[in-house]
Every structure is written in C-alpha cells, then in structure tokens.
Amino acid sequence: MGLFDLFKKKEVVYEDLELGWMQVDMHSHLIPGIDDGSKSMEESLDLIRRLSDYGLRKIITTPHIMSEYYRNTPEIIKMGLADLRRSVEKEGINIEIDAAAEYYMDEVFLDKVVNGEKLLTFGPNHILVETGFINRPQMLLETFFQLEMAGYKPIFAHPERYQYLIGDKKLLEDLVDRQIYFQVNLLSLTGFYSKQVKDFAEMLLERGLIKFFGTDCHNPRYLDMLETLPRSKSYEKIKELQVLNSGL
C-alpha cells in the first residue's frame, strides 16, 4: 500500500431504492393527459414499470381535481383508469392499479362536500386533499370539519410543502389535535423541493406524525431523484415508521 492510499476517501456504496415496505403508493399522477402528470401512455407505462421494480404491489393514482385548472370528474378519471389498466395488463406489468383523486381545497370543493356530491376515495373512505403552497385557505379547518361530518377521512397531501404551515406552529398543533392524517412525499426527504421542506418533513417524521407516504410521481425526473432516497439519513427511519399504506 502506498502512502497516498492511506488518504484515499473510501467510496460509499448506497443500496438500491426499495419500496416493498410501503407496498402501496397512494399519491401519483399517472393517468396520461388529464393533469400535470404523465403526458402519454408510453410514459405512464415506463413509470409504472419502474415503480413495480421498486417492490410496490399496488398504485392508487390520484389525478388533480381543481376547479380553475384541471376540471376532472370521477367519470373522466374512471375512463382513464380503465385505459391504463388495459395497457398495464397488455404490457405484463405485475402491479395492481386503482385511482382516486387529489382534490384542491377551494369554495367549489367545499360546496361539493356540503351538497353531498359523490367524491373519489380510497381505503376506508379516505380522501386526498391539497391547498396552495403559499397562503392558508380561509376555509381550511371548515373544510376538514365538513369532510368529517360527511363521513370522509381527509388525508392532507404533502403538508411539509405548505409555507403557511411551516411558519404556523399553532395551526400544525390544531391539525394534530384534530387527528388530520398527514401524507408526506418521499421526495421531500431527498431535498427535491428545498432544504426548508426537507427539514419540516424530517420534523414530522421525528414526531411520528406521518400516516402515509407517497411518491407524488409526475414524470421520470421524480423517480430519478427518488432513487437517491437511500442516501438520506431518514431512509432507515421511514422504513420503520408504522404508516398505513400497506393496508390499502
């Protein structure tokens, strides 16, 4: 061994991404052409094949429903799901595919809830909801209340990404006290969005406040970055957390 060999930095070898512990991804955008997710069936199949290779047994894909931008309906989503399932079966990809929706919280959505309109759910009447990232919606807590009164269990999509929540400890504790379920994006723990988002996600993880994980996969870039997750200091912790994905 030469003198300089003593000072060579030992190369760190990271394990490959493995999501078998999660079993079910309940947040993604894989029905092609109906929101800001996959743009084609070919892209969807490539993404689904990769997700299957990570060890997932089921995907519940969740297209956006937003009154201003993505005016999807349960009928549009179910038609897209049927096409996607046929293509997945034809390609011989061994994974179960289902669909719900990611609902944007606004006045239009609140009216749907109050008026008893049929909404897309997964599991035991879970419904995935999101807000804008900067400003807290005035009807946030009222919408959660109305959802629960209507018999739904709201799942708050990627709370670690909301700037208004990161800066409002009281609101966070109010949501925890109300037992609102949090779904964190695995990508948040890689630093994909920002260091601030990563830090907040790690705090939620340390406190045991995460009930679901999701990929929130939109395109290949998301999975490329997701494959760096084993380098995260949180990787072993998330596999040990008792999340609810596997029961879906």
Automatic annotation (TrEMBL):
InterPro entries linked: Caps_polysacc_synth_CpsB/CapC, Pol/histidinol_Pase-like
Enzyme class: hydrolase
GO terms, molecular function: manganese ion binding; protein tyrosine phosphatase activity
Enzyme Commission numbers on file: 3.1.3.48
UniProt KW Hydrolase keyword: yes
Catalysed reactions, as listed in the record: O-phospho-L-tyrosyl-[protein] + H2O = L-tyrosyl-[protein] + phosphate
Keyword field: Hydrolase
Protein name: protein-tyrosine-phosphatase
Organism name: Algoriphagus iocasae
